[in-house]
Automatic annotation (TrEMBL):
Gene Ontology biological-process entries: wybutosine biosynthetic process
Biased composition (Acidic residues): 289-305
Region of interest: Disordered: 270-315
Xref: InterPro entries: Aldolase_TIM, Flavdoxin-like, Flavodoxin/NO_synth, Flavoprotein-like_sf, tRNA_wybutosine-synthase
Gene3D superfamilies noted in UniProt: 3.40.50.360, Aldolase class I
Protein name as it appears in the record: Flavodoxin-like domain-containing protein
Keyword Transmembrane helix part of the UniProt annotation: yes
Transmembrane parts of this sequence: 21-41
Classification via SUPFAM superfamilies: Flavoproteins
One family name in Pfam for this protein: Flavodoxin_1
Native organism taxonomy: Eukaryota, Metazoa, Chordata, Craniata, Vertebrata
Ranges of residues in domain Flavodoxin-like: 83-241
Amino acid sequence: MDPPLATWDFSPLISLWINRFYIYLGFAFGISLWICFQIAIRKQLFIFKDKNSQEKSVPKTTQDLMTNSYISLQKKEIFVSGVKIFYGSQTGTAKGFATVLAEAITSLDLPVAVIDLKEYDPDDHLVEEVTSKSICAFLVATYTDGRPTESAEWFCQWLKEASTDFRFGKTYLKGMRYAVFGLGNSAYASHFNKVGKNVDKWLWMLGAHRIMTRGEGDCDVVKSKQGNIEADFRAWKTKFISQLQILRKGEKKPCDGNCKKGKCKSNEHISEEIETGSHAQDGLHQRDTEEEEPFESTSEEEPDTEDHQSLSSVVDVEDLGKIMNRVKKEKREMEHKEEKTGLFRNTVKNEASERRAMITPALREALTKQGYQLIGSHSGVKLCRWTKLMLRGRGGCYKHTFYGIESHRCMETTPSLACANKCVFCWR
Ligand SMILES: Cc1cc2nc3c(=O)[nH]c(=O)nc-3n(C[C@H](O)[C@H](O)[C@H](O)COP(=O)(O)O)c2cc1C
């Protein structure tokens, strides 16, 4: 028989119920202790593992591997990413030569692209060659009156204009490497290979680096150097391929001391000049060293003749840069002569030290990065975005919309960097 309900003792349960908060507290305390304990253990384990891995994870072999892979990465530096062969052909000779050249380059395991100049827009793409690490070969034919083929007409027109446009400047294509092979016939004496010569000259004027002397193919079998145009091309091709292999290895042909102006008389002299940076600073001097056979290249003389012409006639504002360069060159020569004779030496030096540049090196760097062409040590100019758009037929700035002023005729210029006014709306 069950005891009656009244006889049951509920007092322990009641006391538990009354003290239930202490029980909860006890549980909570226990759980937090357990968590802290776990965290402490994990931390200890982690420190231990870390120590071990630091000691063991980079064994000598791995270290060696890392060093080796670094070296191999360094070794794998690419000096030539590929070759682009541009051709301007009418009856197919240049095109055929381009194919032959492409095959020869493919056998060297180098990527190659054969491009018809008809399908190439220099305005959009030529500047890519500055950084692309490719070598550009131009095979261009000359036609009546020294004109290019129809397919190369726009390319030549663009190059001609850009090379004399001060807004592009002398360094627009700096970094681009190229070689030219012209196709022509010496029977057309006054216009023999004119297109090849011009393309070579214009690229050079824009600052591109000529990797070898221009080749001249001559259809006149009597006058042709190698007997016929095919042989002329083969000779040029052989030279091109060997030059390509040199460049591919990252080797640079040292100056052989046969510079036109005789400024690099010995290799010792060159290294001195490179160290002092005079070669890098003086574009003309650098170009001297690039000439393999200076007598064949006309690029250096021709701009000068143009300068003479421009001086004798009405001066175009766009030619001012060239003229200034000539004046500076003459001044330098004069100073050089004076220094030689010992006359006025001290005065010249004092003047030079007194002259203070208005553009600080930091400002110069920043402006150049922004695309400004700096003139002397005082002014900077840049073609405005609206002008570019206007020239491309893609609209203009608000002055066009509101007042009908065509952007490329807009004369809002504040080229002097020394301007002390702080006008609110000045673009600077
Ligand atoms: C009508 C005509 C005019 C030419 N005019 C010239 C010229 O002025 N100067 C020149 O060096 N070669 C001239 N040539 C020679 C071509 O440049 C040469 O034949 C070249 O190999 C043609 O190349 P292509 O077959 O790729 O078009 C002329 C050829 C032709 C047919």
